Amino acid sequence: QVQLVQSGAEVKKPGASVKVSCKASGYTFTAYYIHWVRQAPGQGLEWMGWINPNSGGTNYAQKFQGRVSMTSDTSISTAYMELSRLRSDDTAVYYCARFDVPVNWLDPWGQGTLVTVSS
Amino acid sequence: EIVLTQSPGTLSLSPGERATLSCRASQSVSSFLAWYQQKSGQAPRLLIYDAVSRATGIPARFSGSGSGTDFTLTISSLEPEDFAVYFCQQRNNWPQAFGQGTRVEIK
């Protein structure tokens, strides 16, 4: 079955960077875009951007441009999201999700990775 | 940038009752709207896409309606497993955006 498995929780200091991984299985990795969405504690969902694993092309929400980098390694069917210059308000659960075709929406999602930014 | 406003913030109902959730867009998103369910401590799950289509495996008690700026998610008869938070999402305009969510809690 289609599955996205993310890396474990991280604790980082302000100003540091974090890199979250998302390993795909059960489908052809290069055939579907991967999106990243985050959720601050007790808050709603915030779209961050996407990567096309086939071409490496990316599209980032303006809020994160200059601080986020989405990459992929097709040899191991894994997507990555790196966020730099972390601040306390970056504390959130970060999700990856497959952009399903032909439905053209996010399904399924990874289990989420909690990133805590604290001095 | 499109803003999605969900109402109410919290809906307190009993099992077996009908739930009606609203999502209003600040400008038209055509039918490019989806609904997701998120249970406590879990990732969101796609319920409804393109405003009215149920995702694979979603029970028939979930239905979506609307187009343009006003959308509704209806749960015809609440089951115990339906008590969760529901988010709407649009992808008609960049950037994609989510509503702030409606919590459906047991009364």
Characteristic key phrases:
heterodimer, A: 119 residues, mainly beta, seven-stranded mixed β-sheet, four-stranded antiparallel β-sheet, B: 107 residues, 11 strands, 0% helix
Describe this structure in words.
The complex is a heterodimer of chains A (119) and B (107). In chain A, a hairpin with a 5-residue loop joins strand 4 (34-39) and strand 5 (45-51). With 119 residues, chain A is an all-beta fold. Helix content of chain A is 0%, strand content 52%. The radius of gyration of chain A is 14 Å and the shape is globular. With 107 residues, chain B is mainly beta. Helix content of chain B is 0%, strand content 50%. Chain B has no helices and eleven strands. Chain B has strands at 4-7, 10-13, 19-25, 33-38, 45-49, 53-54, 62-67, 70-75, 85-90, 97-98, 102-106. In chain B, strands 2, 4, 5, 6, 9, 10 and 11 form a seven-stranded mixed sheet that branches. In chain B, strands 1-3-8-7 form a four-stranded antiparallel sheet, with no helix packed on it. The radius of gyration of chain B is 13 Å and the shape is globular. The mean pLDDT of chain B is 96. The chains are: A mainly beta (119), B mainly beta (107). At the A-B interface, strand 5, strand 9 and strand 10 of A face strand 5 and strand 10 of B.
Write the layout of secondary structure elements.
The complex is a heterodimer of chains A (119) and B (107).
Chain A: E1 3-6, E2 10-12, E3 18-25, E4 34-39, E5 45-51, E6 58-60, E7 68-73, E8 78-83, E9 92-100, E10 105-109, E11 113-117
Parallel strand pairs in A: 2-11
Antiparallel strand pairs in A: 1-3, 3-8, 4-5, 4-9, 5-6, 7-8, 9-10, 9-11
Chain B: E1 4-7, E2 10-13, E3 19-25, E4 33-38, E5 45-49, E6 53-54, E7 62-67, E8 70-75, E9 85-90, E10 97-98, E11 102-106
Parallel strand pairs in B: 2-11
Antiparallel strand pairs in B: 1-3, 3-8, 4-5, 4-9, 5-6, 7-8, 9-10, 9-11
Low-pLDDT regions of chain A: none
* Rg measurement of chain B, Å: 13 Å
General form of chain A: globular
Determine the strand fraction of chain A and express it as a percent band. over 45%
- Give the ordered list of helices and strands of chain B: EEEEEEEEEEE
Q: Which sheet architecture does the biggest sheet of chain B show?
A: 7 strands, mixed
Largest sheet of chain A: 7 strands, mixed
Uncertain runs of chain B: none
Which radius of gyration of chain A do the C-alpha atoms yield? 14 Å
Largest interface: A-B, 23 and 22 residues
